Every structure is written in structure tokens, then in C-alpha cells.
Amino acid sequence: MVEFAIVAPLGFLLLLGIVVAGLVEMDQIGLTNATRDAARAAAICGSSSRDSSTKLPNGSTVCSYSALKSYVSTRVSSLPSGSASKPSTSGYGSNCDTTPTNAVICVWTSTHGTVSISGSNPLDACAKGDEIEIVTQFNAQLYLPLVSNFLGTGGGSSRALTADATATCEQ
User: Which residues is 83 bridged to in the sheet?
Assistant: First the structure.
């Protein structure tokens, strides 16, 4: 009985840590999927000569930059626990739009050279064969203070998760 009294709390803490780590991993997978879907949608919509009847994957919105930003925001905000946040915008040049609330959207040539964005609309700058990149961030809730000390960002109760996806513009 004494051994159980010593080992049980440690085993229970280990079990809770595994559950919380699993929830964080689930949020990371969801964020990666949402970012990949957004990059694919941007690649379909990319080009200043895009067909006006082309729609985003949600089927209800015609391709436009404002609709794409809304699509990204909705997908990232729909993750089950935590909150979407803006990724760091340092280090991005004239080929990136850092104005969306929870994403950074960049356009690159096929050899990863920069493509200048005019009018803060990366979709119009994306020619066939160029790459469009979307970077997102999400603060995953960690639930337990002790787990937060090990997994948390800055000792807080959440962990900042980031995802980066690239797709080739098709039009």
C-alpha cells in the first residue's frame, strides 16, 4: 500500500501529461491541415486573370483576396481549444502581406526568388508556376499548470503552434 501511495500520483501525473501532449499534437495537426487547405485555395485563386466563377473550397465564396483571408481566419479559428494569433512578421519582405489578422501570405518564384506584391494582394502577383506560402499561428490551451511549466511558451498556460504551407499557383 505504501508503494502505491508513492507511485500513484506520479503515474496519474504522467497520464495527464500524455493526454495534454496528445491534445496539443491534435491542435498542431489541425493547424497544419487548415494552413495546407488555405495554401491550396490560394493557389487555385492565384493570378490577376483568374476566372470570375472560380470558388474557394467552401463552395460558397468566389475567389477574392478578402474571401481568402476570411477563409484562412475561419479555418484556423475553428480549432477546438485555444485561439488563433498573428505569427511573427519580422523577416518578411515586399513579397509578403503581413496585414491579415492571423496569417502571413507570401509569393515566391519557382526558384524561391521574391515576387513583388502590388496593392497588398498576393493573389494577383501569383503567376502560373509561382509558389504561394501561408504561415499561421495558434495558441493551444495546456489546461494543467504543471504541464504548462514544461510545454508552455514563456511559462504560460498555452503553447504557440505555427504551421507553414506552400502550393504552386495554377493559373
Answer: 139
Q: What is the pLDDT of residues 52-86, one digit of tens each?
A: 677 777 776 677 788 888 888 888 888 887 788 88
Beta carbons within 8 Å of 17's beta carbon, 6+ residues apart: 144, 146, 147, 150
How far is it, in rounded angstroms, from Cα 51 to Cα 74?
Answer: 24
Q: Is 154 left (phi over 0), alpha (psi -120 to 50) or beta?
A: left
**What number of H helices and E strands is found in the chain?**
4, 5
The answer to pTM > 0.85 is: no
Asked if residue 160 lies in contact with residue 139, where contact means CB atoms within 8 angstroms, the answer is yes
Q: CA angle, corner 64, sides to 62 and 70, nearest 5?
A: 90
Q: Is 111:130 a contact under the CB 8 Å cutoff? A: no
Count of structural domains within the chain: 1
